[in-house]
Amino acid sequence: MIKDRSLCLENERIDDLECNGFCIIQDPSFFCFGMDAVLLSDFVTVKNRAKVVDLCTGNGIIPLLLTAKNKGEHVTGLEIQSHMADMAKRSVVLNESEKRIDIINGDVKNVRNLFKRESVDTVTCNPPYIVDGKGLKNPDEPVNIARHEILLSLEDVIEAAAYLLKPMGNFAMVHKPFRLAEIMSLMAKYRLEPKRLRMIQSDYEAEPSMVLIEASHYGKAHLKVYPALNVYDKERNYTKELLKIYGKE
């Protein structure tokens, strides 16, 4: 793929996603995507003809990765920050994916005015992890918004997912393990039944630093817990499983 620099603004760069030739426009002064987005795009179950909505899409990394991996028929990314949504839209054009990806500049708390109820097969989200008022805040507001629940709460995300999903549709999210009890409680409140769960840890001796969870709307109780994914092996090299997820094994 030709990397069209004309789509970039000042200080922006084009990064190779190393997946079917896809690239992404990023600005290092804003919030760039991390491992959590890559792991979520690999973990989520998406049927071939599924319609997907990615909440808190940021620079559009999840829609781009899902499309690059040919997961789903169409993905819509919803992002409240206008500059991030614009960057995501330009990445869609860069990858000639306008027919399969839409980016909407809008608020997760306003989904009822943006989408029809129970109109989506799959919802994904890599949300802010930290409750507002806790933890150190980055003085750069875009990074702050991406990390802290300033503009929305965990409940806002889960309520929006339940509104969007068809019966038996699935919601996949990456989050922090210390909030797992809260996640489970809110999923129960909105009739999202946890079906798959996997912890991510630095190595086999480390405490998990992330959790991947997938739930079914109105699903029956049956949770499958997978072995933890180790990022590093004993020699502090990336594990073969992680490299495979990144398309390098």
Helix content: 25-40%
Give the overall average pLDDT. Answer: 91
Structural class: alpha/beta
Principal-axes shape call: globular
How many helices does DSSP assign? 7
Rg from Cα? 17 Å
Report low-confidence residues grouped into runs of 5 or more: none
| DSSP strand content | 25-35%
Number of strands: 13
For the report, how would you describe the main beta sheet? 9 strands, mixed
For the terminal residues, how far apart are their CA atoms? 22 Å
H and E order = EEHEHEHEEEHEHEHEEEEH
Could you explain how this protein is built, in words?
It is a single chain. It is built from 7 helices and 13 strands. 26% of the residues lie in helices and 27% in strands. The chain starts with 12 loop residues before the first strand and ends with a helix. The radius of gyration is 17 Å and the shape is globular. The chain is of the alpha/beta class and 249 residues long. Helix 1 (35-43) crosses helix 2. The strands form 3 sheets. Strands 3, 4, 5, 6, 9, 10, 11, 12 and 13 form a 9-stranded mixed β-sheet that branches. Strands 1-2 form a two-stranded antiparallel sheet.
What does the secondary structure layout of this molecule look like, with pairings?
Blueprint lengths: L12 E4 L6 E4 L8 H9 L7 E5 L5 H8 L5 E6 L2 H13 L6 E5 L14 E6 L4 E2 L9 H7 E2 L4 H11 E11 L4 H10 L2 E10 L8 E8 L6 E2 L3 E2 L9 H6 L4
Parallel strand pairs: 3-4, 3-6, 4-5, 6-9, 7-8, 10-12, 10-13
Antiparallel strand pairs: 1-2, 9-11, 10-11
